[in-house]
C-alpha cells in the first residue's frame, strides 16, 4: 500500500508518518505545500524521511496561492462571521488539489491528512479530494487512533525520538501561510484567558508597534492588487511586503470565537496583517468605482461566499457561479488607495480611479447646477406614499 500524507513537519503530521507506516504497513510519501510558512520549512524534507517517509515533496505554491486563491477571495471581500479573513480555510483547497495530483502521479492507494475529527480542515481536505477523485481512499488518523489529545502525541513523539516544537507547556496549535497564522488549543481553549504576549509571529504586540505612522499607496486592477508605492509586485511578493509593513505596525490581529462547520464553537487567535490592509484598501476603492446596486448585491453574497470557503466548498459549482458574478462586479475596480498604518490600525486616507463614479459637482454642498435640491421633494413623497396610505387607513400604527 502507498499513502501520500499531507505533511507539515509539525506535531500531528510528524507522528502520523510513523503511525500510518506501522498501522497500514504502507510506504509513506510526504507532501509539504509551501504556502508561505517561511522558516518553518527548513529541513522539513529530511525530517519526513528520518521519521519514516520514503520521499517527501516540498513544493513552492506561494504564487499560485496568492494569485488563484487569496486574490479571488479578496475580490469577494469574504469575511467569516464578521471578523475572520479565512486564512487557513483558503489554503486547504490548494493543498488538497495538489495532494491528489501527487497521489495520481505516484500511483498511491490513499491520501492522509492530519486534521482532527472535531475541526473544519477534515471537511475541507476531503471535499476537495472527492471533487477530484470521487473514489479515493482517505485516511484520517485523528478519527482512528487511540490518542486522546496533543499531550498524548507529544509523549508518543518523545518515546519514538520524533523531534517536535510543541511542548506540554505550549500545546497550542499553529498554522501559518502567506495570508495569516492561526493559534488554537491549549491555554486558548478557555475564551476568558488572555492570549499570551509571546503568541505573536506575523504581528507585533500593540505595545511594540512602530512609533511613527507609515503611508502606503496600493494600486488595483479589476479588484486585484498589483503595485505598492508604484512598484509592480508578483502576487506572493506583494503579500510578503504588506505582511512586513503590517507586522511593524501591529496591524491585523483578531481574537474570536467562531462557529465551526461541525457544530461546535472554537476560539482562535489570527494574525492577518497584509490581508487586513488589502481588505480595507479594496473596499475603499470599490466605494468610488462600484455602482450602488451592484455593490449591495455583491455584498449580499459575502456571508454565503465566506461560508463556502470556510466549509470547504471551493470546488463546488455554487462557489464558481458566485465567483463569476464577483469577477464581473470588479471590471472597473481599478485605481489607487492610500492607507496609513499606525498603532494597530489601517486607516484609508485617499482613493482615486479613472473609473470613479464620485462626482464632486453633484456631491458638493456648495451651490451648483449639477444637482437640483428641489428634486428631493418629489422623491421623498413617492417613497412615502405607502406610509401615507397606511397612516390614512385602519391599519394606522402611530
Protein structure class: alpha/beta
Overall CATH architecture of the largest domain: Alpha-Beta Complex
Give the overall pLDDT as a whole number. Answer: 94
- Counted by DSSP, the helix tally is 12
- Count of all domains: 2
The rounded distance between the terminal residues' Cα atoms is 76 Å
SSE string: EHEHEHHEHEHEEEEEHEEHHHEEHH
Strand order of the largest sheet: 3-2-1-4-5
Strand content: 15-25%
How many β-strand runs? 14
What would the CATH topology of the largest domain be?
Answer: Argininosuccinate synthetase, chain A, domain 2
Report the sheet with the most strands, covering strand number, pairing sense and barrel closure. Answer: 5 strands, parallel
CATH superfamily of the largest domain, by name, is: Argininosuccinate synthetase, chain A, domain 2
Percentage of residues in helical conformation: 40-55%
CATH class (first level) name of the largest domain: Alpha Beta
Radius of gyration (CA) equals 25 Å
Low-confidence sequence ranges:
none
Overall shape: elongated
Q: What labels describe this entry?
A:
single chain, 398 residues, alpha/beta, Rossmann fold, Argininosuccinate synthetase, chain A, domain 2, 2 domains, five-stranded parallel sheet, five-stranded antiparallel sheet, 12 helices
Amino acid at each position: 500500500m502507498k499513502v501520500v500524507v499531507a505533511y507539515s513537519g509539525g506535531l500531528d503530521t510528524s507522528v502520523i508518518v510513523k503511525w500510518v507506516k506501522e498501522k497500514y504497513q504502507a510506504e509513506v510519501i510526504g507532501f509539504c505545500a509551501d504556502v508561505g510558512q517561511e522558516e518553518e520549512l527548513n529541513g522539513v524534507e529530511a525530517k519526513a524521511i528520518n521519521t519514516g517517509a520514503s520521499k517527501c515533496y516540498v513544493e513552492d505554491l506561494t504564487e499560485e496561492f496568492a494569485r488563484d486563491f487569496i486574490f479571488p477571495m479578496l475580490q469577494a471581500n469574504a469575511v467569516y462571521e464578521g471578523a475572520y479573513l479565512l486564512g487557513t480555510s483558503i489554503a486547504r483547497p490548494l493543498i488538497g488539489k495538489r495532494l491528489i495530483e501527487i497521489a495520481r502521479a505516484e500511483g498511491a492507494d490513499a491520501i492522509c491528512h492530519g486534521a482532527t475529527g472535531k475541526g473544519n480542515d477534515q471537511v475541507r481536505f476531503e471535499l476537495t479530494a472527492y471533487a477530484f477523485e470521487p473514489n479515493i481512499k482517505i485516511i484520517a488518523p485523528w478519527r482512528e487512533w487511540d490518542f486522546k489529545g496533543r499531550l498524548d502525541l507529544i509523549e508518543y513523539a518523545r518515546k519514538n525520538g520524533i523531534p517536535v516544537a510543541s511542548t506540554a507547556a505550549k500545546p497550542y496549535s499553529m498554522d501559518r501561510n502567506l495570508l495569516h497564522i492561526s493559534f488554537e488549543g491549549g491555554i486558548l481553549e478557555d475564551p476568558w484567558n488572555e492570549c499570551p504576549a509571546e503568541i505573536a509571529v506575523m504581528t507585533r504586540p500593540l505595545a511594540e508597534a512602530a512609533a511613527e505612522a507609515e503611508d502606503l499607496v496600493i494600486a488595483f486592477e479589476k479588484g486585484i492588487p498589483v503595485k505598492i508605492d508604484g512598484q509592480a509586485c508578483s502576487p506572493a511578493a506583494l503579500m510578503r511586503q504588506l505582511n512586513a509593513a503590517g507586522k511593524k505596525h501591529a496591524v491585523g490581529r483578531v481574537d474570536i470565537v467562531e462557529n465551526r462547520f461541525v457544530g461546535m464553537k472554537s476560539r482562535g487567535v489570527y494574525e492577518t496583517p497584509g490581508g487586513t490592509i488589502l481588505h480595507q484598501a479594496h473596499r475603499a476603492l470599490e466605494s468610488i468605482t462600484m455602482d450602488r446596486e451592484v455593490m449591495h448585491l455583491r455584498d449580499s453574497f459575502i456571508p454565503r461566499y465566506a461560508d463556502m470557503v470556510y466549509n470547504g466548498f471551493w470546488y463546488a459549482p455554487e462557489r464558481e457561479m458566485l465567483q463569476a458574478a464577483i469577477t464581473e462586479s470588479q471590471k472597473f475596480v481599478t485605481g489607487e488607495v492610500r492607507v496609513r498604518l499606525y498603532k494597530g490600525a489601517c486607516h484609508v486616507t485617499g482613493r482615486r480611479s479613472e473609473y470613479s463614479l464620485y462626482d464632486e459637482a453633484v456631491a458638493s454642498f456648495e451651490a451648483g447646477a449639477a444637482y437640483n435640491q428641489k428634486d428631493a421633494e418629489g422623491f421623498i413623497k413617492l417613497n412615502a406614499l405607502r406610509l401615507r396610505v397606511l397612516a390614512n387607513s385602519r391599519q394606522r400604527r402611530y
